[in-house]
């Protein structure tokens, strides 16, 4: 028993016509055989004859002519030009690139940037201090001195190292909204707790802490 195939792709139907025509079947026989599987409305008999004539004329592909001749959007030359534009401005936007390359859509540009060139947007990382070259040289010199002392004195030298830090703290630190959370039943009749918004105290003091390898002094 034959099984019907509904809504076949155009290229599939044309490929079957090409195969049966290569076997030696004529257009009428091809249309009759394919109608049993694809249904009477899969293609008119005149179009089947037209495709048979095309294959006799030397046509080998089964896609539409427009799709066959269409050039790929993201050519290697275009990808290279997009890469050069990005290297010239690392803070680019897709809208800005679209102004530079009006011949290509924004979605295609995004595909080139994210998939072909494998770029991703990263935020700047915050650091405590911006060290100059002089500061870096001083820190490297201090680290080398510590290493030399450690190789000479061993763990005894580590007991002599004391580190300190200082920061300004408020006299009164208000409870945060996260800290004021309470566990309650969702169906509880109790009122939801409220918290007044308050500003931090303007009075501050300097807190200084020193510690060694064993803990806070």
UniProtKB/TrEMBL annotation:
Coiled coil: none
GO function terms (MF aspect): nucleic acid binding
PANTHER family registered for this protein in UniProt: MARINER MOS1 TRANSPOSASE-LIKE PROTEIN
Superkingdom of the source species: Eukaryota
Naturally occurring in which organism (per UniProt): Araneus ventricosus
Domain (Mos1 transposase HTH): residue spans on this chain: 13-58
A Pfam family of this chain: Transposase_1
Name the UniProt record assigns to this protein: Mos1 transposase HTH domain-containing protein
InterPro entries listed in its UniProt record: Mos1_HTH, RNaseH_sf, Transposase-MT_Hybrid, Transposase_1
